Amino acid sequence: MSAGGKELAHVIPGSFDERVAAALEDLGLRENVRVATDRFHLARPLRLAEDLADVDAWKAAARAIKAQAVSHLDSYLAQAAASIRRNGGHVHFAADADEARRIALDIAQRAGAKMAVKSKSMVSEELHLNHALAAAGIEPVETDLGEYLIQLAGKTPIHIIAPAFHMGLDEIVDLFEKEAGHALPHDPPQLTRWARGQLRGKFLQADVGISGGNFVVAETGTLCLVSNEGNARLCTSLPRVHIALVGMEKLVPTLADLGVMISLLARHATAQKISVYTTLISGPRRGGEVDGPAEFHVVFIDNGRSNALGGEFEEALYCIRCGACLNACPVYRNVGGYTYGGVYPGPIGAVITPLLAGLAEAPELPHASSLCGACWDACPVGIHLHDHLLHLRRRLVEERHVSRMEQFVFRLWVRLWSRPGTYRLTARLARWLALPFARHGRLTWAPGPLKGWTAQRDFPLPAARSFRDRWADLEREAPTGEASRRG
Amino acid sequence: MPAKRVALFATCLADIFMPEVPESVVRLLRRAGVQVEFPGGQTCCGQPAYNSGFAPEARRLADNFVRVFESYEYVISPSGSCASTVRLYYPELYAADPRRQEQVKALAGRVYEFSEFFVGVLGLEDVGARMKGRATYHPPCHMSRELGIVSQPRRMLRAVQGLELVEMERADLCCGFGGSFAVRMPEISVAIGDEKLEHVAATAADYLVSCDGGCLMHMNGRLQRLGRPAPRPVHLAQLLWEGVSGR
User: Fold this and answer.
1) Most buried in the list A111, A182, A289, B44, measured by CB within 10 Å?
2) Chain B (105-134) residues lying within 8 Å, Cβ to Cβ, of chain A
3) Local confidence band at A183 (pLDDT 50, 70, 90 cut-offs)
4) How many CB atoms are closer than 10 A to CB B121?
5) How high is the ipTM of this complex?
6) C-alpha of A46 from chain center
7) pTM (2 decimals)?
8) A410 min Cα distance to partner chain B (Å)
């Protein structure tokens, strides 16, 4: 596994269990996450129902577009590259994070850059690009308000579309005051104005603008950026050089396809009809134009994505990073994004982190789900997220990432339970073994796999007479014509 | 209903831990004029193995299930997630054997969740139950999202004379059980459960009704640990039979 994989899976320190414990103890964070995810999650179905006559048809169309793009990724990448070059842009392909960083740094250094302004990009998080830029003497400045806060706090995004949505006002004021060197009012509009003033200067100073890419249209070579703050436009039009970092699965075949995707993205992300800014960039500044960068670079990044191509997990590459699955997830809403440990949290993170980084890097993630399916329900392109988690669990067993003890227990259990006689015997044995420990007919403590259950919940004793044992009585009750059948 | 062979799949959890549930299903079916058999060869659908990634092991239990129930026209289960395992996930276990897979798919299509069978097949919402009190319904996730069984249990509850059905806030949220999840990640499981139980408590319901033994065992265990006497977690079938029999 490349270094890129490790970087993708390990962003937050501590073991998985330690991160769970830390998150569950942080009641303030849990409350903030609940409130913020609810705001998105509860508004989404209303927005969809109000605007789109047949939501399922829209979702099916979006899914078909992504299926087409991902299943023919090689030809669409070639087409996109040709289109971007035709428009006067430069195209680069990066196999992993190392290569992507080298490409981005190389472009920035050739431009003699001292400062890079960035609009929000999850791929940039995959690359840990800010560290690399700083190490090369180029100051990275995040210009999305949430990302700016995260950068000031020295943290990573907790959510893929709302990186700092868990921060309270006091925390934000502290961060800004430290940066400003003077007191600031506890008033969100005034704080935003202050941040805006800070960032305006940076936009004008920066030599390089770095963005992600929500979509790239293969037929036209158009880069589409979706944002709400206008910072993406400033990042991509003021500096002399624009570098777009794009996960290679972000392609759509045509402009008409982009229309479908745009119709769904903001509605699923923030329950907006459309984001405040939807920017379509087709190349650098042309002769006679006043705005726009002199150089336009698109870096298509694999970084493990090809692991998912062509197999049962290919569908995971349909993701348009709207975050709806995070907002729907009962696990995410209780433990937040940092518990997942990697760049991508929530159900989609639990699926793609093991795929991109390797299962051994995140063996807990496939189990970090109750399989409730709310993620699948929320997904605009119908990714069967909970099924993929099941399939990853199967891989964990096949690739022997589970203990010998667990393998032994499951194999023995299945041996015993594939026949009714031994099934019945084990149920009786379980009652007999548990009886001495029971209080009021239930267990308040149990060893082994039930230790965790009984730490906070009681566990019932097997009934004195199972249904199977009661069946003979029930048969006698039966009016007529009923018989048990020995299977 | 014409004379067809109907089998009860009791499910291991209900068979062992809550025998009153399959018992109630049998009595309600008989009252509706349906003769039901209990094939003695049945054990478990294999969901715990499947959900833990042990596919070949799950397949062994699936083999047993298919052998035991293949000859029946209807198989009725008092668990949404067990029905979902057979209907949605069994075919995958037989992917390597297309001929067998077709037979398994055919059987999977004959497996019904309890309320789905009553409302959809028998056309019976009112089983003749009457009781005083207030109930709230927790929709099991696999049953509502995977099988699309959403209104049937609620319709059966609304038909109970004297019983008031109160919807809880965010009823769609998972209770946190999740099968092996409740054992592997018990702290998160309980945290999710506690939020669900807050919404339940806000309804001031006497009964917390659901259609899945797992959800009920998890929520019941938590309520017991917290020392909360109300509401009483109870399976839909059991509550309905109590309302019919007056017990």
Assistant:
1) B44
2) none
3) very high
4) 15
5) 0.96
6) 23
7) 0.95
8) 7
